[in-house]
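Q: My collaborator sent me two sequences in one message, no labels, and asked for predicted structures for both. Can we handle them in order? The first one she listed is below.
A: Yes, handling them in the order given. First sequence, followed by its structure tokens:
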Amino acid sequence: MGERQIIHVDMDAFYASVEQNDHPELRNKPVAVGGNPDRRGVVCTASYEARKFGVRSAMASKKAQLLCPHLIFVPVRMERYTEVSRKILGIFEDYTDCIEPLSIDEAFLDVTGKNGIRIGKEIKDRIRTELALTASVGISVNKYLAKLASDYQKPNGFMIITEEEAGKFLLPLPVRKLWGVGPKTENELNKLGIYYIKDLLNYDQNVLIDRFGKKGIELLSLAQGKDDRPVENKHRRKSIGEEMTFETDIDDMNILLKYAKDCSLILGDRLKENGFKAKTITLKVKFEDFVCVTRSITLPNFTDMGQEIYQHASNIIQNKISKTKKIRLLGIQVSNIRYPDEPQQLLMDFEGLF
């Protein structure tokens, strides 16, 4: 497998699978976790039974219901998904302390120097036997190839891409499989006649670099199966956040403050659970016209108190956010985190508002 051994674990239809596991009457049925179709809502996760009808994450609930009339909608239970996610993380920690969560349902593990194949199989087995859920696992010499491997045989997949096999595996893939290639970049590459990774590798590299700059160099490197990025240890997270998308746009200050308080208290609990303290509080707001703004304050001292986070967040809402437009999303993030093993500063650092 080469010098590095990187595992990517991706839970299968995580939210929907948790709901089907907790509620046996939902098993083997098309399930959508997300908004009520009678209001403006969005599907967060669809079960594989629902995906057969074309239902996908981020799809409007009304459209999902049209595609699958017998689709069962269930509300989001983030606390429950977070609880299960922590148990999955606990399994990972039995094998390595070098873990990089990408989201609540997927993570990279660096197991260099160990038997990655055995560890990958054990993790899959333990998630199935201990939590009654399935995960897709990819193993390779870097993060990019490991993520491709886990995605290739979903759901419940297990795939290894060796350094020797990488080139052959990559050549026939569409360029959208390259990390960082979204619809816009894919369209630009297609205009050059580049549709597959093999097309990219056969194209004049100087033209690609002139056209795309640094990104062109990165794309060529990924197309060759190269990715030197390290797995960033979970214990050095830069921020923790909570956010809520409202089913209907809101301009009622009391409702906004209630959600802000709920998010703040959850953040305080999460900081305490990990032994963290934070110094910077950022409020994120998305308005009815989809314009997104953030406002931040850096405190003189570190805190893990939800009530203190709320005090500053509510002040930002009331004094720093426009009242002329309704709000569709509210989020609070804490950053500038101090970890349990870091010494406390003796001098207070006043950075103020920015």
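Q: And the one she listed second?
A: Here it is, processed independently of the first:
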Amino acid sequence: MNIVTKLLSTAVGLTMSAGLALAEPAIIFDLGGKFDKSFNESAFTGAQRWADETGGSFREIELQNEAQREQALRRFAEAGANPIVMAGFAFADSLGKVAPDYPDTKFAVIDVNWLSLPNVRGIGFNEHEGSYLVGMLAAQASKTGTVGFVGGMDIPLIRRFGCGYAQGVKAVNPNATIIANMTGTTPAAWNDPVKGSELTKAQISQGADVVYAAAGGTGVGVLQTAADEGILSIGVDANQNYLHPGQVLTSMLKRVDNAVYEAFSAGENLETGNFQMGIANGGVGYALDEHNASLVSSEMKAAVDTAASSIANGSMSVHNYTDDETCPAVSF
């Protein structure tokens, strides 16, 4: 038995003889780990909230490499876990192979809403909407008129974050300069805080005084460097305001925690199909708490809340990069 098989066998706990009175849910975290202070950690928070409220338990595994995706799915399914939740778009191919083999198992996958399988719940987010709001805050807070964006892996999903952000910036200051960089083109881009720091320093040298990180664990390096250099940063996915109180302008909230919590709560009765979460149904937003209250004036908040209401009621729309792979506000 190789080390990967040992790891998965331990994590999944193939103790079938013990049986399961009720099927336990399971979650598979993406590369970067469940304590990345961002996307994966938000997913873990949702799972833990469910466990705390119900007294239930769940199974979990943190992937170490791409090859483990399908193996982890199959082992959890064989062990009777139900539902099985995956954190990240990169599970799409593996799920497409595995789900048909386990028709009685429910699967939920975050950031994948194009699979049409009878036992799969796909959950997409309107990241461009939430990013628009934090872009407005960035432009209002900037003193130089130059703001930055550091993305993780260069994929359409992350360009959607950046494009929404740029539109929000331009809505406030049409003359603003937006510097956008991606960390890399492989999954390693999600967990490279050193590269995130380097990109942030480069953007600061070009005049950026607010930098938005949409880069998973890499963003930790962005926020740290921004704090060290005396500029503002914007967190992503989870509320990261607490990491550097008074120096994180806000965080773009992507409620991955709610998606996981709802899937676990539904259990084997999980409704399948593809679902979308945006401002209108509480899927995305921005964070305001004691750690950034001094940075967001009542005027700033009022402007952003007005925009949020307009997006929610459909009177205003934010261009979605993935609709046509173009962005009217920034070049990648």
